Amino acid sequence: MSVLQVDIIKAGYVGKKQVIEDINFSVKQSEIVGLIGPNGAGKSTTIKAIVGLIPEVTGRIQFIGHKKNYAYIPEQPILYEDLTLWEHLELAAAVNEIERAILLEKGNELLSIFRLQEVKHHFSASFSKGMQQKVMIILGLLMQPDVYVIDEPFVGLDPRATMEFIRFLKDERKRGAGILLSTHQLDIAEKICDSIMLIIDGKLVVQGSITEIQEQCKLPGASLFDCFDSILENEYYVTK
User: Fold this and answer.
1) Residue 97: is its pLDDT beyond 90?
2) Cβ atoms 193, 208 nearer than 8 A
3) At what angle do helices 210-217 and 224-233 cross, to 10 degrees?
4) Which residue has the higher pLDDT, 239 or 230?
5) How far from 62 is each of 7, 42, 50, 184, 213, CA to CA, in Å?
6) DSSP states along 107-171
7) Which pLDDT does position 238 carry in this prediction?
8) Which residues lie across from 179 on neighbouring strands?
9) DSSP assignment, residue 103?
10) Contact, 169 vs 120, CB < 8 A?
C-alpha cells in the first residue's frame, strides 16, 4: 500500500523558471526510497514541493497512509532560538497530540541515544549544526508518522549519530512507515534503500532497485556510486 503518491507536472520558485518537471513516484509502507542526484539537480525542490514549501507547483501530491501525517526533516535545521531543546519537544508533542507519558518516555530515550540529555534545557541557538540536526531528527522520530520526508540528514552528524539514525530508519520501516530520503551519501543509500531515484536537471531519469539500476547501466554487481557515475556520463540517460 502506498503512503505517498507524487505526481508533479512542474514546480519552481516565484520569479524563476521551473526547476523540476515530470516527477512521478510513490512511497509504500515499509519502504525506504532514496532520492539522489548532483548538486542543483532538483532534489531539495522536489522535497519542498512535497511538503508545501514552494507555491509554484502544478500536479498532485497525496499522503494516503492510515493517519495521513508526515514528519519533515530538512537539510537546514529550523528551530526557535527562544525555546530550549525540551520545549521544542513539548511543542511538537502538543501540536501532534502526543500524550505526556509518551513524550516523557520516548523523548528522554531519544535524547539519551543521541547524547543530548545534558543539554535538554539549553537554548537551541547555542547548539552546533550537528546538534541542531539531531534535534530535528528527534522531533521527527517522536512523531512516529506514516511518512518521513528527509532532506540530507547526515550532514554534520558524527558517525555514532549517523549509525543510530540509520538504525531508527530501519526500525521505522519495520513499523510500517514509508521513508523518502534525499542524500548525497550513496554508500548509505545503497545499504538501506529499497529503491533509488536519480534526478538530473530537474527530471527523474532512473528509478528502481539497486539490481534494476545495475541492469539499466549494464553494470551487474556494480556499486551505486559506479552506476551514478555511468549515468551522468551517458547522454542517453540524461536526455531520456
Assistant:
1) yes
2) no
3) 40
4) 230
5) 9, 20, 9, 26, 26
6) IHHHHHHTT-GGGTTSBGGGS-HHHHHHHHHHHHHHH--SEEEEESTTTT--HHHHHHHHHHHHH
7) 44
8) 32, 148
9) I
10) no
DSSP class of residue 2 equals E
- Kindly report, residue by residue over 20-58, the tens digit of the pLDDT: 999 999 999 999 999 999 998 999 999 999 999 998 899
Q: Which amino acid belongs to residue 227?
A: C
Distance CA 165, CA 211 (A): 25
Look at the pTM and tell me if it is higher than 0.85.
yes
Max Cα distance, the chain (Å)? 56
DSSP bridge pairs for 20: 11
* Cell output for 64: 494516503
Give the pLDDT of residue 18.
Answer: 73
Domain at 2-69+148-239, CATH from 1.10.10.60, 3.40.50.300, 3.30.450.20, 3.20.20.10? 3.40.50.300
Query: Is the model more confident about 186 or about 14?
Result: 186
